[in-house]
Amino acid sequence: MADKFKKILPKDIKDNPFRALGEDWMLVTAGSLDSYNTMTASWGGVGVLWNKDIAFCVIRPGRYTYKFIEKADTFTLSFFTGEYKKALTFCGTHSGRDCDKAKETGLTAAETENGSVFFSEARLVLECKKIYFDDFNPVNFLDPEIDEHYPKKDYHRMFFGEIINVYIKQEQDT
Questions:
Q1: How large is the greatest C-alpha to C-alpha distance in the chain, in angstroms?
Q2: Is residue 25 in a domain?
Q3: Is 174 domain-assigned?
Q4: Has residue 125 been placed in a domain?
Q5: What angle do CA 91, 97, 101 make, to 5 degrees?
Q6: The pTM is what?
Q7: Which range of residues forms the domain containing residue 32?
Q8: How much is the pLDDT for 17?
Q9: From CA 40, how far away is CA 81, in angstroms rounded?
């Protein structure tokens, strides 16, 4: 990992979070190299909460990744260049219950020094230690249109993580 990525501070991330999350998407990954799952997400955020640099993601209980992030102490958010959009589309439309997403997409699972799983092809990785979760409660939706996202009433759980490491892909000599 050390030769392909370098650590930076969260405040030194140059990405536009609206583009990175909403347009480029990310892979949310939890577990160990022996047993992990990943899923594509375009909902989430970054910021400062409780005097900590945090990232959050939201996962529906029916997603296979849900059980992994529930059990894990950490999770990663991996961001890619546009050339990986097809792989991210696959990871968002297929379940890890039924296939090996890394094998199917050609992505390479790797491990941080803390044992969190991420993908070597990522350009940016946020490694997060879970610090809080909460379930969406439809009673609290102030905009009634929000509930239209939940025809099955399978409300997301938010997972907040303190960003413990940020890795960016180092430029390769050409």
A1: 55
A2: yes
A3: no
A4: yes
A5: 30
A6: 0.95
A7: 5-169
A8: 93
A9: 14
